[in-house]
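Predict the 3D structure for this chain.
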Amino acid sequence: MVLLPKTSSAPLLLGLGLLLGACQSATTSVSTPTATTAETIAEADLPAISIVNPVLPGDFPDPSITKVGDTYWATATSSNWGPAFPLLQSTNLTDWKLVGHVFPGELPAWADYYFWAPEISQEGNKTYIYYTAHKKGGNLAVGIASADRPEGPYTDHGPLVAQPDGSIDAFPMRDENGQLYLIWKEDGNSVQQPTPIWAQRLNEEHTALLGEKKELFRNTAAWEGNLVEGVCMIKRNDYFYAFYAGNGCCGHTCTYGIGVARAKSLLGPWEKYDKNPILTKNEKWACPGHGTIFNRGKRWYMLHHAYDTRSFEFVGRQGVISEFSWTANDWPDFKNGNSIPTKEAPLAPRNFKDEFDQPTLLPSWQWPIEERPTVAVQGGKLLLTARPQHSGAVLGQHTTTADYTATTTLLNPSKLPAGTVAGIAAHGDPENTVALTAGNGKLQLWQLEKGQQKTLSEVKLPAAATALTLRLQAQNGNLFRFSWSSDNGRTWQNLPGVTAPINGTYLPPWDRGVRAGILAKGPASATVAFENFSLVNQPTVARTTDN
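Done. Predicted structure below.
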């Protein structure tokens, strides 16, 4: 990914059986899936995947995936939401569990924000995460972290490459001689320049580049627009294949698509497919990009992100799977007319409820990466320490559909310290928020847009209320209504003078979706107590394909 003006994504990886890596080699010798490998033969009779998209619902751009034993591990861009880089596990590619993060606490000492493009890779008994982040005092750079287990803990080894215009979207690959290389994109489009894809030798410790870099290809085709990026490689039969994204990644006007190039040697020469792009939008899914290739027996798939055309940037780029086969001329050919599967099937909504009855904060909670809040969970309560700046101390949850309802119970609102407010909110980033809060003797509906706060409505706070239930209702991802209850949700009251939903189109930054959550704004000496939080996503219709 890159700084604005930009359209971007990040790499991915998935391995099968003994391979452990499908888009790269997994041992010290080249071992990538081909039509004759033992892994392919062993899995040839496995049932096909029944794909129900999205497989990673919510804001999971640039998903990367690998297989260790019988378990799939995935991660994705977290951008400016902490903790950095989620770690998810699954045994069936459909049901995923969030088990932690690559950097759950302290961030790498060299980086400050824009945590993009994590590539999870298994080699031997070691798990590696290649990732992009903004270097303190510099530009975007590629770093690496490693762990003895996919779930961590991870040790950061610092940046590998940091070009003046930015270096992003790293991917490891071994050449025809078994030599390890790092593949990455020079972020030229951030300064109105082309975007070369580079390859350079990487030492066996995965900690430093060796020798000189070599350009593989750059954006030259009309459909690629001002960039190519997010390369994932495989080696099949006689060819290396580079699957890549091109054009504009993000928002309602996105133009992203996926192309492919091939070469008989890793360092080229590379030939782009004359039928690119090979994966494009349809009526349900828009702007597919940044994909990972994996195979199950003789069937081939790509895990990549795309926008649901109903929710677009308000939910964010979601993880989806598309199947492809190979032509007689050995080029990939996506099914469903080179678009993402759209056969309809019912999908149960992914809901969330937290009674704050666990000893620690659940791992799905997120916060602004540079403004980590101080929290404690005890006695069935979440204690959130206020912050005076921006939107205050913020916690948020992914949304997975365009329509949803979030509620929370705020305890003792009339006893909050002077100058302190707390409540429920739709979060874009620290300077873009819509919130209903209690404090200073009143309930207040307000919005923060580009750091400028405006009160939309307020009413006197019930003095006797020991708890207030606050509700946020979203429609189409960008229209918000708020209400409150002093009797545990039996009856609801609206704010005076607010007859139409609040337009939150301005909330999400260009590269991430809206979060529903809570906040506490005020002096850092103030602590606010919440009793619960729930997020109910309205049932929707998903798309599936039984291959």
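The chain is about 5% helix and 50% strand.
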